[in-house]
Amino acid sequence: MIKIIYILFCSLLFSSNILSSNQKDMQRVNDNLLILENKVFSYKIDDLKLFDTPQNKYEPRNFVAPQKFTTTTLEPLNRDMSLLESAHLLRRTIIGPTIEEINSISEVNTGQAVNYLLREISSPNPPGEWVNYPIPNYQDYSNEQIDSLFISWQNQQTELEYWWADNLFYHSTNITELMTLFWHDHFATSADVVVYPPAMYHQNKALRDNSIGNFKELITMMTFDPAMMIWLDNNQNSVGSINENFARELLELFTLGEGNYTQDDVTEAARSLTGYFTDGLNIFFVPDLFDNGEKTFLGQTGNFDAYDIIDIIFEQEQTAYFIAEKIYKYFIYEQPNEEIINELADILIENNYEIKPLMTTLLNSEHFFDENFYGSKYKDPVTHSIGALRQFSIDINQSIDYPYTLNEILRYVQFLGGQRLFYPPDVSGWPGYRYWINTYTLPWRKLYTNSLLDGAFGITIDPVSFAERIPNGLSDCNALLDYLYIYFYSIQPSQLTKDNLLDELLSGADPGEWHLIYYEGAEERFINVLERMMRLSEYQLK
User: Which of 164, 236, 167 is nearest to 200 (CA)?
Assistant: First the structure.
């Protein structure tokens, strides 16, 4: 009985984000969190005066991607790639592909490249031992101890954000990190509500470790994931006191999609999901709090539990279509191709919902390499900010001359763009597509890349070492720029833009005599050209 009472107490605690039943204590905790938030961010704005603007300045609009007509299919390409095709494949599967990565992939055929990108790599070490720290018994904590606990959790959450930023930079050698970001958006869970960083870490680890694994198993993991149970209130779901939040999103956002179930299905699913509770790290089933009655769900009747509900969901062909469509939109284009998606759904069903066969087929297909889709997607803030660092092979752990680390800058850039890691705006995730680009965010993107190349972040980019990574990049101005057009852009800029960039690089010099090292002022002009190239609209696309 004592155990049940403790579980229920933890349930109320986490779902409501309170540490006391006393309203005054609740206000004090909230005030402390606000103070802490200001401590974390305000000094950055005051010191740098770079990002001193509200996050949500513009009201959202409904953007619909235009239809692209194509006859390409899922037939495998299985041939050697051009440099442009290599860059396209990597831009869609990793964060900010480097010159070396693009060159290396271009030396193999598409099938080999895709297998390489889908290979298993070792999981990164956790950010600290605290990821397994249990929830303390703080019922007898003083106000000062509660404050200290919250500060400790806030520091851990900050460390967790930096840890993922590190992984996005250092571990983006295969598709894992991008798929983890995809699943983080799909199962959008915010640290604002969860509060407890170990739970957020273990959810991220589950998404990473199963990024191209079995979708049904992943759904099962998320059903019993502590962070998810806190986020969507299944920690408060018990017989006689049904909470439908998780059941509704399980059907609408995670598996079937809106319009493919009824309200009665939501209620019956919620009844089947009763009795499960978490302390933040562990899951408990309390039989007395489980609804043991008969339920009717998606046309089937029985004394269903959570596992039965998942089984029935995955008997629906719509489940395969739903996740196939979402993967297609993420990796190909926002406007779905019904024929292609139906074929991908069939692949999922035939392979018992294994994601890897679907990704293998899609990424190696002539449809994926259809030039209609080049530059058809907007870079999200994470891809834009961290991708720029990877493109210049910047070590993000190097020391800088500002009062904060580079990881802090990355975090704030992501926050500015509306894609702060571990903080999706709501359960539906980030809107994406055209929501990333507007008259507010575009200038800040340009300012970020300008600041990066100007050394404003305490980083110095050596133009010579960068150019010498490009074949004939030091001595042939045309070869240098032609390579960069492929390196930076999915679609080519206009000839007028190319002519202007060449003129700026040469500054009156004879192309045959130009040399980055030996021609006076060439290095400075090259940096100016790089800044201009990264300000162009084409750089915002992938």
Answer: 164
Distance CA 434, CA 155 (A): 33
Residues 110, 366 contacting (CB under 8 angstroms) = no
- Phi-psi label, residue 198: left if phi above 0, alpha if psi -120 to 50, beta otherwise: alpha
For residue 301, give the H/E element and its range.
strand 300-302
Give the tens place of pLDDT for each residue, 451-501.
Answer: 889 887 777 889 999 999 999 999 999 999 999 999 999 999 999 999 999
400, 458 Cβ separation under 8 angstroms: yes
Rg (CA), the chain: 25
State whether the Cα torsion 24-25-26-30 is positive or negative.
positive
Mean pLDDT over each residue of the chain, to the nearest integer: 86
Pairing of strands 283-285, 300-302: unpaired
> CA 215, 219, 220, 225: dihedral to nearest 10 degrees?
130
Residue type, 24: K
Crossing angle of helices 338-350 and 355-363, in 10° steps, is 140
Beta bridge partners of 109: 80
Provide the pLDDT for residue 361.
98
As a dihedral over the C-alpha atoms of residue 152, residue 153, residue 158, residue 162, rounded to 10 degrees, the angle is: 100
Question: What is the rounded (10 degree) CA torsion for 452, 454, 460, 462?
Answer: 100
Of 1-5, 134-138, 295-299, the range with the lowest mean pLDDT is 1-5
Burial zone of 42 (CB within 10 Å; 0-12 exposed, 13-18 middle, 19+ buried): exposed
**Residue carrying the six token digits 């340009």:** 446
- Does residue 258 contact residue 252 with C-beta atoms inside 8 Å? yes
Query: Which residue in the block uniquely carries the two structure tokens 């956790």?
Result: 126
Kindly state the average pLDDT of the residues 44-56. Answer: 34
pLDDT at position 34, please?
A: 32
The pLDDT of 18-41, averaged and rounded, is: 31
Encoded tokens for 4:
């049940």
**Token couple for 99:** 């010159």
Residues 373 and 337: beta-carbon distance below 8 Å: no
Euclidean distance between CA atoms 410 and 415, whole angstroms: 9
15-25 burial by CB neighbour count: b if 16+ within 10 A, else e?
beeebbeeeee
Average pLDDT of 80-96? 96
Burial class (CB in 10 A: 0-12, 13-18, 19+), 542: buried
